[in-house]
Amino acid sequence: MPGQAANPPAWLGVSRLVAKRVLSALLTLLLVSVVIFVAASLLPGDAAQEVLGQSATAEQVAALRHEMGLDRPAVTRYADWLTSMLRGDPGWSYIAGMSVRDLIGTRLVNTLSLAGVTALVSVVLAMTIGLVSAINRGARLDRALNVVTLSLVAMPEFLIATVFVLIFSVKLVWLPSIAMISEEATWGETLRSCALPVACLAFVVTAQMARLTRAAVADELDRPYVEMARLKGVPLRRIVLFHIMPNAAGPVLNAMALSLSYLMGGALVIETIFSYPGLASLMVNAVTSRDMPLLQACAMVFCAAYLALILIADIVAILANPRLRA
Amino acid sequence: MPPAAPPPISRRLFVGGLAGTSALALGGCGPSQRRAPPGRGSIRVATQLSSTSDTLDPAKGATATDYTRHFMLYNGLTTIEDESLAAKPSLAQSIESTDRLNWFFDLRRGVRFHDGSELTSRDVVHSLLRHKDPATGSKLAKVAEQFGEVHADGKYGVRLRLTGPNADLPTILAQSHFLIVKAGQASPDGTGTGPFRLAEFQPGVRTVGLRNTEYWIEGRPRLERIEVIGIPDEVARVNALLSGDVQVINAISPHSIPRVEAEAGCAIMASPSSLYSDLIMRQDRLPTGNPHFVMAVKHLIDRPLINRAIYRNRSTIANDHPIAPFQKYFNAEIPQRTYDLDKARWHVRKGGLEGVRLPVYATPAANSSVDVASILQEYGSRAGLNFSVNRVPADGYWSNHWMRHPMTFGDTNPRPTADLIFSLFFDSGAEWNESAWKNERFDKLLVEARGATGEGLRTEMYGEMQQLVHDKCGLAIPVFISLIDGFDTRLKGMRPLPLGGFMGYRFAEHVWWED
Amino acid sequence: MRWAASLPLSGRIGLALVVFWLLVAIAGPMIAPYPVGRFVDQEVFSPLTGQFWLGSDYLGRDVLSRLIWGARYTVMLAAGAAALAVLAGTSVALFAAIRGGWIDEFISRAMDTLISIPSKIFSLVLVAAFGSSLPLLLLIAALIYIPGNYRIARALAVNLAEMDFVAVARARGEGALHIAWREILPNMIHPLLADMGLRFVFVVLLLSGLSFLGLGVQPPYADLGSLVRENISGLAQGSSAILSPALAIASLTVGANLLIDALKPGGGH
Fold it and tell me: d(Cα C231, Cα C239) in Å, to the nearest integer?
C-alpha cells in the first residue's frame, strides 16, 4: 500500500481534499450556470411574454422587456448576473417582484428540513436493511428484502404518495394530506404535517440506498480477509461492523450522497402532491415563467448541495478507512 | 451457496398489495371523521394553481387563485351577484348614460380603504387609466383601449367617455381586472375596500385574509378568516377536501365527482360556463383551408362520447359556435351537428382528402385537448384521415404552437358578453381570430350589433352570426365545460354562477359557516 | 436452455419475467384485443370481465390492450436509454481514466454539472425546448443517466488502471485503446451490468415522473408510468386500470434485476 510507510494525520489529507474540492466546486458551479443559461435561452418565449400572457400587446411586452432588462444582449445579461453573483447578490426575481434571496430563503429552509429529516430516517433504515440482507445473503430474508426494495425502487412516486394519503389522511384521518408550513404553526403541527411527505420520500430513497449498501457489503464479504477472520472464529456480525464497514464505507457513502442529493431536487413530485413549498417546485416555477435569476439561483443551490454531500461522503470515508488517508 | 428456496414473497406480496388497495375502495367516512377546520369561521381554500406569478394587482390577474384573492381584497364599480348576470352598482351608487358613449359614475360616500383613507374619484380614475399604460401589464389592456377619457368630477364623481358606444360597460367593469385600487399605487399592495384585509401574502404559497370589520356592506363578510393555497395535483386536491384539510376546492375532474359525492358532508357545485376548448383548423393553411376538410372534421366529432367519456356527462354539448345555450342571444334554431361518418366520408372524397396525414397539436394547457385529440385520431381513421396526436408541454404552448400549425387547440375562458367573444376571437381582423377565417357578412353584423338599439334586432343579428360561425368558421367546438367545485357542506351559501368556479370567484364575501 | 437451467432459481424467475415482457413488447401488439385508442366501454373503470380481461380505463378504453402497448414503450425506452447511458458513460469514463490530468478533471466536472441539475427539471427544459419525439425522449433519458454511470465506471477504471497487469501492458507499448478495451473493460463488466439494471429502473421511474409533468410518449400510446398516472383517479376504488400497470412495472424491474444479479460471478452456483 502506498502511503503506509509514514501514515500522515487524517486532518492533513482531509484539508488537502477540501481545498482541492472547493476549487473544483467553483469550476462546477460556473459550468452549471452556463449550462442553465444556455438551456433556458433555448426555451421559447421570455419572462415578459410569460408574465403578460396570451393577451399581451406588443407595446406591453416591449415595455416590460425594457424594465426587466431583457432587451440587452444575452452575453451582457449573463455577465451582469455573474458579477453580482460574485458579490454575493443573486439578484431580483423578474416575476415575483422580490429579491431572489428572500424568495429562496424560506423555501431553502423548508427543503433542507424535509431532506434532513428524510435523510435521518432513510439512512438508518437503509443501513439496517442493507446490512441485514448482506449478512443473510442468499437466505429467505435477503430474497424477500431484495424483491420488496426492487419493486419499490421503480414505483412511481405519485402512486406511493397517493396511496399513503388515501390510507392515512382520507381513510384513517391520522395525518394531514397537505403539508401546511406556516410561522404560526407549532412544532408538533409542522412535524405532523410533514410526516407523509417524509414517509414517501424515505420510501423511495431507502430502497435505493439499501440495495447499494447490500451490494457494497456483499462485495467485501467475498474478500480473502473476511475468509481469514471467519476461520479465526470471529462472529459474522463483528466482521461486518468492524472490518467490512470501514472498507465498504467509500462506495456506500458515495451512493448515499447521491441518493440524498436527490432529496433536494428530486422531491418535485412529493412537493407538488403535498403542496409543500420547497425549492424543486420553485425551480419548475422559474422554468415555466422564464425567471432567469431565480432559475440560476435554484440551480446553484442544488449544485452546491450535491457537491457538499459528495465532499462530506469522501471525508467520512477517509476518516473511517485509514488506508485512504494517503 | 445453498440451493435456492422457492421465493416466498413475490406472489403473496402482489396479492397483498391488491387487497390492500381495494380496501381503500370501501366507502367514504362520515363527516365526524374529517378533520375540523382551522378555526371558528375560518376556512382554507385550495385552487389548482399557485406560483411566483401570483399577484396582488387586479390588472395582472391571470388565474382562478388571483381572481379569488382580488375579490377578497377589492371592490369594483359594479358587481355581478346572481344568475341573471346583470351588473349592479357597487362602489358606484349610480351609473348614468344616455348615449352609451358618455358615462357618469356617482361614488358611494364614506367607503374606506383598509388603511382608513376614504375612497374618492381619484382612486377610480387611477384604477381605470392604469390599464392603458403598457408598463402596468394589464391583462385587459385591449378592452381598456375603449376608455377614451376618464376624469374626476368633484370628489365623488367620475366621467368616462368611450371611443364608441357600448351598452355592456357596466358588465365589463364588474370583472376582477377593473377592481378599484388606491390612487398613487403603481403596483397595488392589497389595500382595497374589500371584505377581507390582507394578513399574509406569499406568492406561490398562500394568501391569508382576515375579516374587514369595517366593511361598508352591513353584515358582510360572515367568515373570520380565509386562507387560499394551491394544490396543483387534482387527486391530491380532492383528497385534501375529503380528509377535511381544506373546505373548498376548485377544478375537480369529472372522474372524481363520485368520490366527493360518496362522502357525507362534502358536496359538488357544478357551474355551467361558456368555457370551451376548441379545435382550430387554420384557413390559411392546407389541407385545413379546404372547406371539405373542415366539414369532414366537424362531422367526425362524437360530442356525446366526449361528454360521456371525458366529462362524465357534466358538460354542455356545443354546436360549433361560442354561445352557450344559457347565454343571452343563444340561437336555438341552428340544428345540432352530430357525428355522421357518411357525411364525413363524402366530404373527404369530395375534397380529395383520402389518406391525408396531419399532426394535431394538443396540450395539457387546453382543457382535455389531449383526450379530444385521441378521440379525433381514432374517428379520423374511419373516414380515411390519418391524424397523429402531438402532445406538447403546457409550457410555452400559447406562444409557440397555438394557431401556428394547421391544427391546434385553443382554450377560451367565459367572456361576459357576446360582443366581447365575437370581437376578440371571430372578427377577421382580430389578433386571436384563431382559424384565420374571413367573412364579410359577419364582420359587418358585428359592428352593427354594437350600435343596434332594439333587443330584438340584436338577438337576430347575434343569431345570424352564430349560424355563420357554425357553417363556415374553421373551428370545431365540441362542448362547453362546466366548472366543478367541491366544498364542505357546513359551508353555506354556495351557489353556481356561470362566470366561473367559486361563484364567479366572488364566494368569499357571501358564504358562512354552520357547524 | 442449459444456460438457463444453470441459473439459480431467482435468476430463472428473473429470466422468465424478462422473456415474458420482451415477448409482450415484441409480439403483444399483434395479440392486443382492441386498438390502443379505441373507446370500447360505455362505462369507465370497469372491473375485470370476459370482454375486457383487465377492465377499462378512465375513458372506457381496454386496459389490457393499453398495457401491452405500454409495456412495449417502457421496455424499449428503458432498455435503450439504459444501454445508451452505460455505453456512453463507460466510454467517456475509460477515456478520462486513461488520459488522466486536466482532461479527466474537466470531464468529471462536466459530469458533476449534469448530475447536479435535478433530472425531472432538466428534462422539462429539454422537452420544452426540443419537443418530445420518441428518439428525443430516448436521448434525454440516456443523457440524464450518463453521469451516474460515468462516476461508477471511472472509479472502477481508475482502480484497475493502477493494477500490475495494466502497467505490464503499458510497458509492452500497447495503445490506449487496447488497454481500455482488452485490459480494463473485461474486468469491470459485471459491476457495469448491475449498474445498467439500476439505470433501467431509473429510466422507468423517470418516464413516470415525466408523465406527472405531462410529458412523455405521445398519446394515444403511453408508457407504463403514464398509464398509472392517467388512471390515478381510479386508485381510491382499487381499479385494475391503475393496479395492473403498477404490477407490470414491479415485475419488469424485479425480473430484470434478478436476472442481472444471477449473472454475477459466483451467483450461478
Answer: 8
